[in-house]
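Sanity check

After download, print the first record. It should look like this:
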Amino acid sequence: MADVTGTTGTLVLAGTPIGDVADAPPRLAAELETADVVAAEDTRRLRRLTQALGIRTTGRVVSYFEGNESARTPELVEALAGGARVLLVTDAGMPSVSDPGYRLVAAAVEQDIKVTAVPGPSAVLTALALSGLPVDRFCFEGFLPRKAGERLGKLREVADERRTMVFFEAPHRLDDTLAAMAEAFGADRRAAVCRELTKTYEEVKRGPLGELAVWAAEGVRGEITVVVEGATDSGDQGPDAGELVRRVQVREEAGERRKEAIAAVAAEAGLPKREVFDAVVAAKNAARTGQEQGKGLT
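Expected structure tokens:
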């Protein structure tokens, strides 16, 4: 219940499941049951969540979404100033991460009101971990502009970003976005499209941006997170042609087919498969030429 002693309340940001309800953190149920005010991005989804968890909210439930975020923030800050414990939840994942919440957090901090969190599932970190791309350094770019020109311009701005990048995208714009990424970053830049994470039809499609754009053109459904490899160091020349050939030979000697060996070496080196293939063919031709010249001397 709200504190009537004059002590300010607490704003609690609570992570909600991004798919599987069983992923709900244990504290979430307790906070939902005891909060004085529950601010939800979608009150209908909140109702379904509490039913799935087998609990009931006892506090006042209000909507808090993009359309009313600015207008409702002062009301919630007033409740916090009066000692209320306000719980903020969005449809999925952590509030403020491409969802409502930032304005309320900023306003609470400005009023010296305590802000805490109930950690929960994150589509950003889940997709990053599943992508197979480097995870030591990454950045979150959120949703790209909807207009084609603005989207391409934004992608060109981050084309030289060295860190792995994570984007959110709507399914009906995915093919256009991947095509724009291929244009801005290069068709051979590695990426992963993570769809319906933790849900029944979860899928992670990995490959070069050019190939992923072709795949997405057939139509993709569900919640989408795209992870893209960062730009390589222009000062790092990487393995030369001879080293690429040697790596392919090692894999072939271990029993891999040449096609698979070339694909694996290309992925390791961050190079197009065609470049590794050309190096192997050139080495083979050079060896054949050397043999023929040797025969001519005998």
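If your output differs, re-run the checksum step. Summary of this record's structure: Confidence is low (pLDDT under 50) at residues 1-5.
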